[in-house]
Batch of 2 targets.
Target 1
Amino acid sequence: MNTLKESAAGLFDLIFPSLLGGTSASKPQPKSSEPNAARHVAVLAVAISGSLGDTAMQTAVGQTLKAAGIGKMTLLVHDEKERAQFERIGYRVINVGGLFKPVIPMSVIRSLRQVFEECTDLIVIGADVLDGKYSPSKSLRRFQLAGAARRHGLRAGVVNFSFSDKAVPALCDKLRKLDFLDDITLVSREPVSAGRISKVLGREVPASADLAFLLSPTPATEEPVAGIAAKVEAWRAEGRKIIAFNINATRLRKTPDADLARSLGTALDRLCTEIPAAVVFVPHDYRKGSNDEALAKMIAAEMTSQAYYMPDRHYISSDAKAICKMADLTVTGRMHCGIASLGSGTPALFWDYQGKVEGLLNLAGTPGQTFTEDDMIDPDRMVARIAEALEHAPANRAAIAERLPGIKAMSRSNLNFILAPDSAGTPVAAEAAI
């Protein structure tokens, strides 16, 4: 963390709410009592472009609001790279890049005030950036934005977030002092985080399931999905099991890329021969410094089997979900690739490198479907782990199918404060959680 930048940002945070304006003399009536067709919902994007997990959440929100008849939607983004894909969903896209600079440009402040004048509701998607681990200032500003929206008369919510047991203490102190938290909706995306932030704030924060469960996949007739579907059909005609394969290029491991690629390439080669299987690579993060695509190509270069597919273009989040839906099993190093799989009904085997996925697997009714870095660097162990997961895939698929309607209802509860305000904050199907 850059201490100087955080210090400058902290000073600006003191005046940020006043720059956004609005009245705090009384609680304005939320504008969102209007019929859905007259509503205009603004959504704050999670971060810069490149993560299919982030775009999955943002796309799912847009798809869900549109299906509910919301009249207008605005997505507040941090760069221009994914503008076209969000405009296709029906979002008006406004670039607020600079919102998380130590000193926010006045052009961004003016844009935000204009959004508050035009919109009836604000959704802040919290994801994993609310506990100060990446930046206390950036976490605080998300809450401040929701508070300012509420002062302008919007219904506002900070939803779909995780909260670490290592949340920054100084941020927690600031959150406890915010005078508007009782006037905005807070919804965590899983029970453990809900318990943590409830303890910090001294009020109950309900749990939900991740918004990405609501994402609709790319139709099977559209590219690149149609071309991949044809390959999958041909492989199935050969009697092959289909593995959707993602590996996280994170630096949070001890094994060098070249060694990992060699081991995983050997393991996938054996699976293609012994099961027999075919592999569809599913890169799920294209950001600089954590590029799944580059690592996937290194793994493929170690394979001698030709029973694999490496994408010739960048997927969007709905493509990834459609591909996982075709598979017998998804092997993944990223949580949101796993959510794409589980949300499509396909069992997933996770690299649980941060201890975050067991709750998700319990929710889906498929506990224990994980592997370790030690498994990945030992081809014998990795082959055995994936073969075992394929053997249990039919039973796990049935368990997922039974629970998925409840999980999607929990996911939708992130948006209850807009779509069903009388039930906002009420846990949905909580008994299906951990």
Target 2
Amino acid sequence: MSGLFDRVTPLAFDQFLSPNEYDGVREEHERNQSIMERVYIIIFIIYVIIGLSALTVFFSLRDWYIIKQRNFMLTFINGIFAFISGFVTLLVQFKPLPCGVTLYVSDVINPFYNAIFLSRSLRIVLLYRFNIFKVTALNKKRKVKSTFMGTQEPNYYLPKVYKKVDRIIYGVIAAPTILALFITIYMHTRETEKHEKYLDICNFTKVNGPAADLLKSEETGKVMGKLYSIAQIFGMIMAFAMIIMVYFVSKVKDSSKYGAKFECLSTIFLIIAITLLNLFINKDVSNEKIAMHNGIKQGLRQQNPGQTSQYIMENYSSAFSSIQYPLRILISIYDYTKGGRVLFCIISTYIIFSAIILPIIKCYNSKKEKNKYFHEPTSSIQYFYKVLNSPPLIEELRNIAIKEFSVENVLFWENYQILQKMIYRYQIEYRKAERIGNPKLISQYDFEGYYQQQLQTFSVSSMDDYSYDPNMPVPREILPYYVSFYQTFIDSMGPASVNISGATVKHIYGEMCTYPTIGMFDEAKNEIVEMMYSSIFPILLRQNRKQLHNATINGF
């Protein structure tokens, strides 16, 4: 008996293609098919239960920060279509469906959910670079007074970048999907070399048997091979694109060990591996070899009418010497995976695991960890305010926020603190001018120079005598800085627009247009602090809990 890595004989290959023509082989084949059917039914039931449960729970957790950070809608759609692909792929292993259904799942839906995954990987890369760009762009020196007086500040450049990111993402999804759909429809409506319509051979109503059997058939093998080759071609294109994507994703820094970066890289490697394995299998067990073998066999049958397949294969094996037959192990994999199509179910299953189930686990682990350390001083909102007033820890929070694509929240806090210092400085200088006896001297103070100094170095200075009245009108000298802050962080078209409630935005806009007060951004500040407290602060705690605990003991 030959080994797994030996090439099969013409007889063994013919038994693989036409098991019903051989006594003994037919019974063994039927027995194996029955066992495989039961196994696939069990796998199918487990897949459906886990897949539907995971998608339902993921949808229910859509408002959690961990889910939002991955773009809920894009991830959820990716999960749904990955589930549909795996559902159909497993279902046809024990319940044949019309050929047209399996064809469009293979040639259109598979490229679609792979394109969504590719776009999600690209989104991570672009947003990571975009968040770094926000920090550098907003830290550049700006003359706010000239902005207020009429010089146009490039506030609308970065939002255009955001829109461009969205257009690129949608393009990455739409282009391969539409192209795959058009090519599949074009091929499906054409005629074969025998002037038969592909649509008649592979339609949406008639069940002609499993696709794997149609691929091995003398009559339909070549035709089906051409139709299903579209999925292989797009799979190779996607694999090539993902090889390039590996380089860019590897440059992204992730704050979590099993975060979005892990999901992208692990899924990319799996897609590349499965695509190459499927290509290798279908190259060795190719439709050309099957067609050539069946053609030679058919010619020998015509020369030897009435003879069995076994007689022909045993006595005329030399006639098949021009064919390099596949490896035995690849024949087995081809048979058990139905022409390699079941291999792609591994990809859809892993996408559901990494994109849907892993974030769910992270949500519940986050909740569990929060409850575990709930009574510790370092977990309180009061302690978080101490962290926000520590320049080294603010730096760490900013780095975490870049990785979590929410750096605008930390930038908001830093610039809010600068506004408070501007008001504090105004009060000091105003009191000095009053003591001299000329309050108008306040206009001679270089507030712009003080502002630029604060932009360059974030520090916490003593403000013990700062009398803060939120209803105090914004002084004319400080108003340009409030306007700049509004345009940067509150305006929906601002370069670092924060995600606050519509009611808060409306309230701020109303004050800005009528009677600006120094406390007009306080409600927004509270929302941002709560957002950072529930999103990036747990990550900081997880990474530095021991050091922060020691700092608390030492009176931090």
